[in-house]
Amino acid sequence: MTALDLASLMAPPSTPLLLASAEGAPEVPLSVTLIFSALLLAMILSLALEEKIHAKKSLIAGVFAVVCLLLGTAFDLMPFGPVEVGGHEIEMPVYIPAVDWGVIAIILGSSLFIDVTSKSGLFTWIAIKLTKASRGEPRRLLWFYGLMTVVFSAVLNNVTAMLIVGSLTGVSLKKLGREQYLLGFLVIEGLLTNIGGLLTLISSVPNIIVGTAAGISFVEFFIKASPYVAVATVITVLMGIKLFKIDKLPDDAARAEAARQVESFDENDGIESRHFFVFGAAMTVLFVIFIATTSILPWISELGMGYVALAFAAIMLIRYKSSVDQFYKGLDWDLLGFFAALFVVINVMEHAAVLELIGEGLAYLIGLGETLGTGLVLVSAAAFSSVTDNIPLAAMLSKILANMDTASTDPKWWSVVFGANLGGNLTPIGSASTLVAVTIIHRYKLEMGFARFVVTALPYAIVQIILATAYVLLVLA
Amino acid sequence: MTKLDHFESAFRSASKDTFSWVPPTIAKILVATDLDAEASASYEAALRGFLSATLAGTEPSWRSVGAGDYDSVAALHELVEQWQPDLVCTYRNLHSSAWSFAYSLGEYIHVLTQATDAPVLVTPHPRQTEAAAHALRNTDVVMAMTDHLTGSERLVNYAAAMTETKGKLWLAHVEDELGYERLMEVIGKIPQIDTDSARELIRAKLLQQPTDYVESCRTVISAHRPGLTVRPLVVMGHHLATYRQLISDHEVDLLVMNTKDADQLAMHGMAYPIAVEIREIPLLLL
Q: I need a surface site. Which of A84, A176, A201, A338 has the fewest CB within 10 A?
């Protein structure tokens, strides 16, 4: 299939704003496409080396967005002019409609909602209750922390889940005098964040991007992803118990002492107001219900998940009405800035026909056969997202698949979702949550460099990726 | 990683120190004086009366050593090491005329508290006239004192054991106001830290930790000694002046304190000035 053939298959972009920007795009010389391909590669490499070059990802993507916009304008690629919104033509800078504000709204709203809700002490309460329920028995503790990591990753986000469970792991294992298990617990939890991140549409950014582009509903996403998540979680924890030699406590005396130690945790310590705690719990349940049913709720379905997330954040912020600025300061502006800049870069790449070029490669993979192609998409997505941020990958591949008019039931969407998420388990830089796990490991002065992480995590990642490939090909295809 | 700090702090705060009930056994009591036999017997009788309620139901073995039984610190130390008493009772400035000056404890007390495991009950000197009116009468009001109440299991167990069945046990913690102000002065010069909220939060947390521990002690002690009233006294202040005031306000009969410090051979930094200057009531030095 040639580029022209492929271009003829390209469907219009999914949003009216992007439709307006993509229409009437001039034919792009290959040399220009290659220049922009080099820029894209340079950005991806820079993001992969984020830690080495000591630069935040928002700045890296921002610098590339600035350069791409300038070059895109110089090469006459950018579709300047008014954009059409609801039948009205509106003048706005060319880079504004390039951003997927729906995704930004979901991330902004849910981050604020989670931040305010965590002030109620709800998440620490749940974490400590589970710790007590384990009675300090290491194996049971790993099971409970593993399940908690998966659920928190699914309901909150991977990074917050790792922060909560990882910090509790450090404190509780130290209290129990089981510091020798710290490395194993943190590695397993780090790996499970990316498994839990597969559970729902809002569990990770790649899910949001791919799910939104594919038109997969929250409920459909959950139904299709949950069997894999359940099996992968059990296998990962069992492997962790075996490979990290997490032993049972030897006798009743040790069990009694461990139970006494965990009983001394006070789950109510972080609860400033019982009323706000109950309110936070109720709102969290409602948040999940509303997000899950957004597509079928009257009016809400038109406003979208971003609206739901922002609305819940606004309701929670009423409690802190005089000091909401502290929550605004606490937002991950680096992440939000990164998304905005990334969307701009990808939009320019689309106009420069770079996505078309990558699409050719993808089309080649797909052309190898439905089974082999879908499997290769998953494995290559995992390999790619293991060395750089999985968000550009998800954004780029979902754009290409959308342009190829791929049906929402097509398993290739799931290949991207599974590959982008699970690739994060191959290296410590593959996902933000594994990076948090390694940071906590380093805080406890444990040895865990890049190579050691890869060697440690590889067996788990390989099993998870093989399992995912089999699941996508045998169950979802 | 601000949020990591946030959650770690939350979980560290939720991790409370707990108190275990391990009451000490007092089966052998050694009374050391620098008096003749008759005066020693009189002193021992006063002690028996003072501790009668504490030791009710037990029949400890008493042994008195007077001026003629030892002639040096080493000799008394050897005596203690050989007999292995569960409690040594004595008074400050043994074999010294410095008892009338409030500047020291005397070399015997120093060595006994640091070189032996036995707790030392230091009473006002027999010839001291300014002892509190309620001193050496009973142990119905006891105060346990330390600069770090958390983890002071032995201290609290001894304090509870020394308190009469229906007595009142004050678990006291005085957080050093001077140290706190010094810290606040430094924080006030760091632009990255909000001074007002730091002042409020640090003060609250400094007092919360010992308060939580006292509550843990109260719960456990109440289960084993239901008649005993356990009360917290957690305040900011100047150690010596505040303790003096608290002892006076609550008419404390016995002050219990730790004197050993794992990092030094000398007596615990805060215990020393209080042990030297609080001369009106008996002290139990652990």
A: A84
For the segment A32-74, what is each residue's pLDDT rounded down to a tens digit? Answer: 999 999 999 999 888 878 778 889 889 999 999 999 999 999 9
* CB within 8 Å: B7 and A167: yes
Residue of A430 and B142 predicted with greater confidence: B142
Lowest-confidence region among A13-27, A342-356, A436-450: A13-27
Chain B CB contacts of A260 under 8 Å are 18
In this structure, the number of other CB atoms found within 10 A of the CB of residue A381 comes to 27
Residue of A nearest to B5 (CA): A167
Q: pTM value?
A: 0.75
List Cβ neighbours of B152 (8 Å cut-off, separation of 6 or more): B144, B146, B213, B258
pLDDT at residue B133 in the model? 76
Hey, which of A239-248, A331-340, A355-364 has the most confident mean pLDDT? A239-248
| Domains of chain B listed by start with CATH number | 28-178+205-285 (3.40.50.12370)
Pairwise CA distance, residues B233 & B246, whole Å:
9
Mutation choice for B interface testing from A145, A149, A167 by most B CBs within 10 A: A167
The token pair at B40 is 């020693």
Reported ipTM = 0.74
- Could you tell me the pLDDT band of residue A85, with boundaries at 50, 70 and 90? confident
Neighbours of B217 (CB within 10 A): 28
Inter-chain CB proximity A127 and B12 less than 8 Å:
no
Give B16's contacts in chain A (Cβ within 8 Å): 264-266, 269
Map out the domains of chain A as residue ranges.
6-97+334-476, 101-333
Beta bridge partners of B171: B144, B232
A425 close to A458: Cβ distance less than 8 angstroms: no
